[in-house]
Amino acid sequence: MKDIYTEETYQLLTELIQNKCVNPPGDEMKSIKTIEKFLKKKNISCKVFESAENRGNLVAVIPGTVKEASGLIFGPSHIDVVPVTKPDDWKENPFGGVMKDGYIWGRGALDMLFIVASQVQAFALLSQEKFKPKGDLVLFIVADEETGGAWGADWMIKNHSNELSVNNRKMFAVTEAGGVQINKNKFAIINGEKGATWLKLKFQGTPGHGSAPYSSDNAVHKVSKAALYLTDYCDNRMPIRTTYVSHLVKGLGMNFILRSFITNRKLLPIILKILRKKDPEISKVLHSLSRMTISPNIIQGGTKTNIIASEASLELDIRTLPGQDDDYVVFHVKKALKELADEVAIEKAETKEGIASMGTASPVESDFVTAMQNAIRKDFPEANLVPLIASGATDGRFLRNINVDTYGFSLFDPDTPMNEVVSLGHGVNERISKKTVELSLKVYYNLAKEFL
Questions:
Q1: CATH number, position 157
Q2: pTM exceeds cut of 0.85
Q3: Confidence at residue 352, expressed as pLDDT on a 0 to 100 scale
Q4: Are 130 and 209 found together in one domain?
Q5: Are 318 and 278 in contact (CB under 8 A)?
């Protein structure tokens, strides 16, 4: 691939960072116009859809030549970014898009503007080459992922799904955030994600003087005990599912004996305790993949230091595996609470982020998965894919909910450590290596050629 195309991709990424589409409020139309201008300079038509004031989404299509053939969506890829809370801690201007030391620095560079720029350029190259895919190739750029997708992917699917070819042919999609090498020649793809449910538990007590606490009916006592009960239940008594753990360890090529230990529901808790000391990051991944998790994160209660609390609440971040619904959540929360279950009032926690969702997953084996693997093998001939379920929510869930098999897929420089990817997303000194941008551009281009 010519260097000029890679340089154009770097420049597009820089402009997207500099547009500063921080959400809230978003103002994503700035970057939508940047991408529209980029495409129009190459004589490529696209459509812009304004979902709210200064908020937009973009679609471009290379039509397929075979009516029944499957198609491919580059996206949904979001152009909004999270706020920067401590700009003085950054080595470079977080919205400067500085190229330095082999990296492009800035908020959103990793999450996920490098993918946006790479997909836009790959689409443009294919269009200029007069590529004739069998199925439609769709470029799908969206707003509002960082606060739930209501004005982005969700809005587009509810109002303009016909623009995405999902109504007339089987479609597949690639979005954030796979492509990291997690072991030698083992590259992660995200084939699904856990669901998110945020609950508030409320407890009542009897007010009294704080100087006489013995045998008091203190709501803070109850909420504190509830937090301990829930944590213990999550770690030691929550029902275990090894389906997604099995996908991981099989993809990593572990030997049969080790794989059988890790995927045994009775032995996994023991292994997690061992790994918690030896490799805490892996223990967190395996724990998350094996169960619904409950994290008690906000406690509020009481009105005055010398008054026994008559009310207290506990807010929970609950992440569910695919197939676990609200009834499953409530059942296990109440089971965890033991004697407190009869006293608790459970309600949805109020949040500005509309991320409440069910877990979703796409197949780990298919012709499309093979095509992704072959696309990576253009650069790394020994590469194999390792499917993972993401613990956080992405826009991919909206497409999976309408039967579009969707995967987190890009291609990171193999020298990029996994902990760097985890820490830099939404973090200080967010950046992406120029090599990763180059590889991702090539892998999207090759995937379209391979699959379509």
A1: 3.40.630.10
A2: yes
A3: 59
A4: no
A5: no
